[in-house]
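Feature request, filed as a ticket because there's no other form

It would be nice if the structure record came with a short human-readable summary line next to the tokens. Right now we just get the raw output. Example of a typical job, pasted below so the devs can see what we mean:
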Amino acid sequence: MTNEQKARRLEDLALIWVFLDRRDEALLRQCAAHVRSLVTDKNGLLPCPMCGPRGKPATTGTFQGEFNVVCLTCSLRTVYAMEKADAIAAWNRRGGVTYEP
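Raw output as currently delivered:
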């Protein structure tokens, strides 16, 4: 089951819980938003940790063959890495945990 499917299922559960307790509905919606925030884009990048879904992360390279990931919205960036995959892994690291696409 993909993260998007999990998020949809949590939202469906939130609609069911609305009849039982409003607090549970809000909690389930927050859980669904969190799961959805862990969905990578077509380039394998998670959303910007500062901007969220509004951010536009992009992989950049230098003429020396180094790569980093930068958010085009808020300018948050990773350190330079020699491999593009290492720069993406650094960007996708959240709280010390690396999320793989």
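Something like this underneath would help us a lot:
Residues 1-39 form one domain.
The CA atoms of residues 81 and 91 lie 11 Å apart.
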